[in-house]
Design goal:
Layout (H helix, E strand, L loop, with lengths): L13 H23 L2 H15 L4 H5 L8 H7 L9 H8 L13 E5 L7 E5 L1 H21 L17 E5 L5 E5 L8
Antiparallel strand pairs: 1-2, 3-4
Helix pairs in contact: 1-6
Length: 186
Amino acid sequence: MAEHQRRVVPKLPPAFANGLWYLSCLREARALRRALSDVAGTQERLLLATLKRNEDTEYGRRHGFAGISSAKEYRERAPLTDYGDYAEAVKRIGAGEKNVLTSEEALLLEPTSGSTQATKLIPYTRSLKNEFARGIAAWVSDLFSHDSRLMLGSAYWSITPLAYREERTPGASPSVSRQTPSISED
């Protein structure tokens, strides 16, 4: 299509756009309410599904995920760990190795840090991305439900850091590197 023939899509009024967004979030809000009626059962079902998906990974085989049928068994077989216990595995994932910690491909290695340690790289998978989206949908539904005035105006959302640059690991997995924005005085 030629430049001058480009189709113009009208801008939706904020209340209409936010209303559509709210409606698209209702399914996840209902799912969260159902899950809250049996928190322990929901957590155990999610844990067992995650173990099943990852039973053929190196980590899953080491801890016998295939034979785990309860949260109690998981606690007995998988020791408490910290990031240092995963650092080498994450490095191997960054080098392109598959089935180390998760059966899913790492879309990227997301840098994060706490207040006591240096930056850590977290394998970010499609499932993790979907879980974040589900959580945000339930949150947005709750926001709009508790204060419908939020639907009336436009909004600016920023959930990720201000500035970053993408890098590639040796295995070609993206890794996002955070940069602190600089403030210049004129």
